[in-house]
């Protein structure tokens, strides 16, 4: 047994802490992944696999302790027995039950940090929710692949004890940002320049402050539509992410409210996976390692999609040339030296200003490609999969995008009646229309 499995408390990283602060004021900090199978899973095997991951990643069995210097505290009781919840449903009930479950808040501060629910009908659907305090979307994807690998090994009758010994004997990896800074050549974070605020005028998705009921709305771009999106972005020398962002700019603009005086320049916050700087693009542990950038473009309502795409590509190229996300990562590291109460007070005052103005910059979270090939749990193939981002409190607004088997899923987590379901549906429909009309 490695040292990490003997201790009962663990340090909170600057990124864990930042996601806690953001969650207290702006979102239900949970990330979800949905896996739809070609058949049914063996629930006993699945429970064993989930139990193995709790041993591999003790952070999942912890709660976030909100002290001035916060820390992770491991549960002393056993949580393995309740690790998997099975809900029986008919095929016709499945979609409604799944949608309600995805929007239901988990105990993302008090833990456990992971929740697994199997929806059983003719074909199973597995939903994993993880607290953003301990992991980002990239971490959840790695966790999902670990589940699939362990399940398949048990399915093939490999002894549990041998798998457990191998799993716990592996190097623990890291959760902090130190190796990231070393890989990026940053030796002194105190002298690293932080990003200057831009000149773009503030705009926001329309909302009130009546944050009562959590909700999630999704839309899917099928393979043919996805091929069209890839085609148009490729023809313009851009990426699919550029295409998503261009469509988001254009679709938000149709409903946005603006802070006066307006400027022609508008910005959207986007997430950056900082694993790009690591030699193997992985930390070897479950963690947060993401940051933010804010591409800004000059918007003209008469622009074509291609014109917006060109502006987005140009803005993203500039960001890519200047070590994306590192300024944000350094800022989180510096803020970690503040007592938690001071950081909460600072965030609270900023959020109060946003609430008074009922405005916050729209965000795009590209959750990325779930897998480049089919995922299998034993002989059960994952035929559909998508991810969901945190559920925001207005005026904060975010859209997530994930891809599996050339199928793109857009998702928005929000609270009603603060944000109208009709307005969110219109936004997503407008985005799909941008893809299909211009492809």
UniProtKB/TrEMBL annotation:
InterPro entries: Alcohol_O-acetyltransferase, CAT-like_dom_sf, Condensation_dom
GO BP, one annotated term: lipid biosynthetic process
A Pfam family reported for this protein in Swiss-Prot or TrEMBL: Condensation
Gene Ontology MF terms in the entry: catalytic activity
Domain Condensation: 31-162
Cleaved signal peptide residues: none
Superkingdom: Bacteria
Protein's name in the database: Condensation domain-containing protein
Gene source species: Paenibacillus solani
Lineage: Bacteria, Bacillati, Bacillota, Bacilli, Bacillales
